[in-house]
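Appendix B, record 7
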Amino acid sequence: MNTTLQGKVVLVTGASSGIGEATALALSAEGARVAVGARRADRLESLASKAPGEVLTLDLDVTDQESVRAAVASTVERFGALDVLVNNAGLMLSGPIANADTTEWTRMVETNLLGSMYTVHAALPHLLESRGTVVQISSTSGRIVHAGGGVYAATKFGITAFSEALRQEVTTQGVRVVIVEPGFVATELVSHITDPDRREMARRLGASMRTLQPEDIANAVVYAIGQPEHVAVNEILVRPTDQTM
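Structure tokens (predicted):
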């Protein structure tokens, strides 16, 4: 167990599956007290039953600022502080720009980018008080753009820009900002894609390599958070060994 995380209070968004769930469980195993939020709140009870430590489950929609503020307030009320925010909630609705359903663009921008920003905004007063850490789960798509993934990549590039500005604003006040950029991870994210050609392309890509598992990304988060206070791991890029792009 990494004793630097013992008793720390962590809020994880998008915790109902995949990277969020794995991260919450990994942090709980390290002794953290974990609040987990998601729109599919029914799934969080299963997570809580598997966690070795204390877990608070929250009905959370990151696109709704009132929901975000309530989740942060409930976390602080339950545990008395907030030391770490893990912004993980996200959607990937890939598809070509021509003839796109632009409501999917709105959903991605609201969830991936604005949702991340809303949650940072609500959590920041508490993180400044605790000299805590913000972890932004981004993507290799925040570095490299592919045809058919323009809007998703735009949200991830936006997270990078926002996070760097945040880092410059708060680093002298003791708050660390970490961006974790996973490559292809075996999660249900691909199943969200409504464009059948892009969904099949993603399925074939995943089948062509030894994909990352959610636990691999959770381990990266634990590593970054667990560093001594004077060490800021600001960026972690994690690809499957077999992934070329």
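Remarks on this record: Strands lie at 9-13, 33-38, 55-59, 84-87, 133-137, 176-182, 235-238. The chain has seven helices and seven strands.
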